[in-house]
Specification:
single chain; 96 residues; alpha+beta; 4 helices; globular; Cro/C1-type_HTH
């Protein structure tokens, strides 16, 4: 997870907004030991799907740097409900 690698860690105010929208504790965003397994990640995705309208799309990832291949992956898209719209806005703030 990007947060675990400290590549893109949101500022405290953004983390609080993301955690509030997801209805989770902010520790989940910073604790490198959570989620503990693939099963935990899937449970989190199912819970997120319960509170927002998740869409999953197959996408092509274009490589950055010296990587010389393209890969198909899946992306999660939040759509529709106000929670989903809020999550989109917060993730956009985080990535800026």
């Amino acid at each position: 997870m990007i947060l675990e690698l400290d590549i893109r860690t949101p500022k405290e105010d953004i983390a609080n907004k993301i955690a509030g929208a997801l209805k989770i504790n902010t520790d989940y965003l910073y604790d490198g030991d959570y989620p503990y397994s693939i099963e935990d990640i899937m449970r989190l995705l199912f819970k997120m799907d319960d509170i927002s309208n998740l869409k999953i799309y197959k996408i092509e990832v274009k490589p950055e740097g010296d990587v010389n291949y393209n890969k198909e992956r899946y992306a999660i898209y939040f759509e529709g409900l106000s929670t989903a719209e809020t999550l989109n806005e917060l993730i956009a703030l985080w990535m800026d």
